[in-house]
Specification:
Strand order of the largest sheet of chain B: 3-2-4-5-7-6-12
Largest interface: A-B, 23 and 30 residues
Strand content of chain A: 15-25%
Number of strands of chain B: 14
Largest sheet of chain B: 7 strands, mixed
Oligomer: heterodimer
Largest sheet of chain A: 6 strands, mixed
Structural class of chain A: alpha/beta
Shape of chain B: globular
Number of helices of chain B: 12
Number of domains of chain A: 1
CATH architecture of the largest domain in chain B: 3-Layer(aba) Sandwich
CATH topology of the largest domain in chain B: Rossmann fold
Shape of chain A: globular
Structural class of chain B: alpha/beta
CATH class of the largest domain in chain B: Alpha Beta
Order of helices and strands of chain B: EHEHEHEHEHEHEHEHEEHEEHEHEH
Radius of gyration of chain B: 21 Å
Number of domains of chain B: 2
Distance between the termini of chain B: 58 Å
CATH superfamily of the largest domain in chain B: Thiamin diphosphate (ThDP)-binding fold, Pyr/PP domains
Number of helices of chain A: 6
CATH superfamily of chain A: Pyruvate-ferredoxin oxidoreductase, PFOR, domain III
CATH topology of chain A: Pyruvate-ferredoxin Oxidoreductase, domain 3
Helix content of chain B: 40-55%
Chain lengths: ~180, ~350
């Protein structure tokens, strides 16, 4: 049976976790792989933590949701508390270094707990708006589920019309992916 | 008619709601009637995007009662018509759907189950099984397909129109909020290129000629004055249904021959069940998989055979036993133990099904 990579991304509404998960899923699909992406919809407009479940494999994927993730990216303190339950001994848990959270509240028993300064770099070196694209770069580097080329093609497909009007945006997004990949 | 929506097979990556809209266009549906409710809204959204381009129509009504009755109107006018709903909307729609049952109208309804009872959640469940199979004040004279993948959503939405118009029983595609909102790949195709013959729609009212002179009058009744008259009509319906059942029943099963535990599930839950059983078989565990695709009519004979051979059935569903009731009814007389894994309104993962199966092996 083919390996399935289980990815969870969680954050506040507006942080763009669903967009990133969808772009990653489409990038995998464009490469001819199987992908299944489902948002936990219905909560984000009401102030809940927005979670994206994403699975990528070479064969058809089973249940849409899962108990234990291979990688979790949490982008707010609430997201960290909310996603802890999906941590197993093989899970890589990534969170933004800017989140202030007591050491003892970080998940226990993960394979790796990684704080990355994505928000800071996005703000200071790129643009806060590409924060989520940096996160996508980090996920790609950590999981290798798709190539950075496939991710860039998927972004092009989604935002190409905006890039036509302002080519600088394309560079900004591509740079964000590369920067994100360097963080992991 | 405008050119075709799908001219050659193509792989796409989209949400289940979008799949349903594409399938309905591909199936030759001419009009959708509907009222918004999560998680089926995007069926309407995508349909209204596609409809004008392919000469199809849409009517938004003031509630689900009207959506159901206008769908009936469309069908009686001889148009392939459908609606889509969920949760409390499905509850309201049972009134017109009972009428469709009484009058043998080929109404197609797509249900994307959400949490219940009442408004509950907009997210997901398998709690509309009883309502969709046996809702209304009738006898469940319906065809209900419970889909598990986007490919099936496409295939069975197309099939529903043909089955409805061929046998003249209301036909349902029973999906859920997960299938509605998730994205995965599937292959779209033109059904006619694949050799699917469309059963033509036919007018119920407004036929040419004088009734009683040129043709039989059309009697489409949902009202009777005499008990015996109703009874006789229903006997005809039951006989037609029984005859149809053999032709439309569908199921999926594997590794049941020597299995000690057979995992029985339907719809999206069966994806996890399938994965769990496949994995446990690789480990040498004697487990099997059974999944009715039609919940009405049920694959009675096959399920009974499986139940008689297995030591235990693990019935897994995102409801508190609605699906299990259908199974118990079918396998009555079997002494095989039924072990429940019920999680009403909540998704069930491969890991949970695996753990429970191993526990009872």
């Amino acid at each position: 049976m083919a390996e399935v990579t289980k990815i969870m991304m969680a954050g506040e509404g507006g942080q763009g976790v669903q967009s990133v998960a969808q772009i990653l899923a489409e990038a995998a699909d464009n490469e001819g792989r199987e992908a299944l992406y489902i948002p936990n919809f219905g909560v984000e407009q009401r102030g809940g933590v927005s979670i994206a479940f994403l699975q990528i494999s070479d064969e058809r994927i089973g249940a849409p949701k899962f108990d234990i993730a291979d990688i979790i990216v949490a982008l707010s303190d609430r997201a960290i508390y909310r996603t802890k339950q999906y941590v197993g001994e093989k899970t890589v848990f990534v969170y933004d270094a800017g989140i202030e959270i007591p050491e003892e509240d970080l998940p226990k028993g993960a394979a790796k707990v990684l704080a990355i300064p994505a928000l800071e770099i996005a703000k200071n070196e790129l643009h806060p708006r590409v924060f989520n694209v940096m996160i996508m770069g980090a996920v790609i580097a950590a999981t290798k589920v798709v190539t950075d080329k496939a991710a860039k093609d998927a972004i092009e497909k989604k935002l190409g019309y905006k890039f036509e009007q302002n080519p600088k945006l394309r560079d900004l997004n591509y740079k964000a992916i590369d920067k994100g990949m360097e963080l992991v | 008619m405008s050119e075709k929506l799908i001219t050659e097979e193509k792989r796409v990556f989209m949400t289940g709601n979008e799949v349903v809209a594409w399938a309905a266009v591909a199936a030759g549906a001419e009009i959708m009637y509907g009222y918004p409710i999560t998680p089926q809204n995007e069926i309407m959204h995508y349909w209204t995007r596609l409809a004008p381009k392919y000469d199809r129509k849409f009517l938004q009504t003031e509630d689900e009662l009207s959506a159901g009755f206008t769908t009936i109107g469309g069908v009686m006018a001889g148009r392939k018509s459908f609606t889509a709903t969920a949760g409390p909307g499905n509850t309201l729609m049972q009134e017109p759907l009972s009428m469709a049952e009484a009058m043998r109208l080929p109404v197609v309804t797509v249900v994307q189950q959400r949490g219940g009872p009442s408004t509950a959640t907009v997210i997901y469940s398998q709690q509309e099984v009883t309502l969709t199979t046996f809702g209304g004040n009738g006898e469940g004279m319906r065809v209900v397909y419970s889909t598990a993948t986007h490919q099936e959503l496409f295939d069975y939405t197309i099939k529903s129109f043909n089955v409805a118009w061929k046998y003249r029983f209301p036909t349902f595609v029973l999906g859920d909020g997960y299938q509605a909102k998730m994205r995965e790949s599937l292959t779209l195709y033109d059904p006619e290129q694949k050799g699917v013959d469309f059963v033509p729609a036919e007018r119920f009212v407004g036929k040419p000629g004088t009734p009683g002179v040129d043709r039989e009058p059309g009697h489409y009744r949902n009202t009777y004055n005499v008990e015996e008259e109703l009874y006789d009509v229903l006997q005809e319906h039951f006989a037609d249904y029984k005859k149809m059942a053999e032709e439309v029943v569908e199921y999926d099963a594997f590794d049941t021959e020597d299995a000690d535990v057979v995992v029985v599930s339907h719809g999206v839950v069966s994806r996890g069940a399938k994965e769990a059983v496949e994995r446990m078989r690789k480990e040498g565990k004697k487990v099997g998989y059974f999944r009715p695709i039609t919940l009405r009519p049920m694959p009675e004979k096959q399920l009974k055979e499986v139940a008689d051979k297995a030591k235990k059935l693990l019935v897994v569903e995102s409801a508190q036993g609605q699906f299990a009731k259908l199974i118990k009814d079918v396998i009555y007389g079997s002494t095989t133990e039924i072990v429940p894994l019920f999680k009403p309104g909540v998704g069930i993962t491969t890991e949970e099904i695996t753990a429970k199966t191993k526990e009872i092996l």
